[in-house]
Design brief:
By secondary structure, this protein is of the alpha/beta class. It has two domains: about 240 residues, Aldolase class I (TIM Barrel); about 70 residues, no CATH class. It contains eleven helices and 15 strands. It starts with a strand and ends in a 9-residue tail after the last strand.
């Protein structure tokens, strides 16, 4: 299985490659990708340099073009596809059919991966994307049980990639309504959940902090309590006289213990979430998964998860908690 790691900037790309990533995924500094945070992503020159760095070491770079353009702005996504081909990207990761269609017609030799934002959870959906747009890989949404992943691996016409570690999304990928409800800015049209322009942090006299999204109170944090980026789904709400994480607790997906089962199913690649995270995160998580994969490849039958790996990954988890998420549900 290939290890596909996040690169929010050039130092993170280099760190991921140095720590053992087989491929990295990156985006331009615009709304063509779903991590359009201020100060994040790549200029044209930086992406060229990143591709050269990766290719010199036998690794790959995928360009995330995974948001949904409206018809008036489609040319922006088309120019991004042009650049991907011109710069030598190894694949684009796209969700919207017009973007995939343009890439298919204009650059048939440029590999096309179906983004998780495409929300393909069935064999017919995967088959449609393969037959119409020649996708070479599909990234599965983080809402499937491990049994569903196994069945899709049996039925899919293309290799499949699954998320192995990182932030969870409670919505069907690409269909989030919570952030757009509060801000009026769709994550899939503006390239980011909880756009920074709508976020306001307030420091209080007792050292506590509160955060609002478009003037809506999302959470309050005690002085010593770690605070993550404010998203509606992971805020705390007053429900039935109790205040708690009513929708989703801050926690990270961690599938390390499922590695043998995912390998046996035929999963082609494991994806690490976190283009918005720093170099320390990318280095540590990539190195840990590289060691786990190498040890599995060397001796599959005797492989077991090392407690030291889990301890290291927990340091970088949201809320310092990890979960198997939908993978471990007993209904499917």
């Amino acid at each position: 299985m290939h290890l596909v790691c996040p690169a929010g900037n050039l130092p993170a790309l280099q760190a991921a490659i140095d720590a053992g990533a087989d491929a990295v995924y990156a985006g331009f500094r615009d709304q063509t990708n779903a991590r359009a945070f201020p100060g994040l992503n790549f200029s044209d020159d930086e992406l060229r340099r990143g591709i050269s760095y990766a290719h010199a070491r036998g690794r790959k770079v995928y360009l995330a073009l995974n948001t949904y353009p409206d018809s008036a702005r489609l040319s922006i996504w088309e120019r991004a596809v042009d650049k991907a081909a011109d710069f030598g990207c190894d694949a684009i990761i796209a969700a919207e059919m017009s973007v995939l269609d343009y890439a298919t017609r204009t650059y048939p030799r440029l590999a096309r991966h179906l983004s998780v934002q495409g929300s393909a959870t069935t064999a017919p959906a995967l088959r449609y994307m393969y037959e119409h747009f020649g996708i070479e890989r599909a990234v599965l949404p983080r809402v499937l049980s491990v049994q569903q992943v196994e069945r899709l691996c049996e039925q899919s016409p293309v290799p499949l990639e699954v998320f192995a570690f990182g932030s969870l999304c409670i919505m069907v990928e690409g269909r989030c309504q919570l952030s757009s409800y509060v801000t009026g800015a769709s994550p899939n049209r503006h390239g980011v959940c909880s756009p920074a322009s709508f976020v306001r942090w307030d420091e209080h006299a007792d050292g506590s902090r509160s955060v609002r999204l478009n003037q809506v109170l999302i959470d309050r944090f005690k002085p010593s309590e770690p605070a993550g980026y404010p998203t509606v789904c992971k805020g705390r709400f007053a429900v039935g006289g109790e205040t708690f994480h009513a929708l989703e607790e801050p926690t990270s997906l961690n599938t390390l213990e499922l590695l043998p089962r995912l390998a046996a199913a035929g999963v082609a690649a494991l994806k690490i979430e976190g283009r918005q995270r720093g170099v320390a995160y990318v280095t540590s998580v990539t190195r840990t998964w590289r060691e786990a994969l190498d040890r599995y490849q060397a001796a599959p039958s005797g492989w077991s998860s090392d407690p030291a790996w889990q301890k290291e990954l927990s340091k970088h988890a949201e809320g310092h908690q990890t979960t198997l998420g939908p993978y471990h549900r007993n209904w499917h």
